[in-house]
Structure prediction request, 110 residues.
Amino acid sequence: MITLARTAILTASLTLLPGVARAADTAAGLAKAKEVCQACHGLDGNSPTPDYPRLAGQYPDYLSKALRDYKSGARKNAIMTGMAGALTAKDIDDVAAYYASQPAALARKY
Prediction:
């Protein structure tokens, strides 16, 4: 009985903790990238424009944090604040997983 209670408490605690990893869906991330991100960052995350960051191959936790920070206002950029503001927590995880799974292409700005 004690083990069952401990398991229930542990399960409840883990589901309530912020930042607990959710399973990301790269197919959903691709769909959201087509809708929101590709115009600036490219569908594969290798932006054709040197002024926009390349997202392909970045760590998914870095991308997720950046998007959450734009959404909350902790990171400032007028364009990205608007774009990230429309994303749900699941969208953020999915887009981050999708772009992280793409191969990075090296390039020079100048």
In short: The chain has five helices and no strands. The helical segments are 2-16, 26-41, 60-72, 78-85, 89-100.
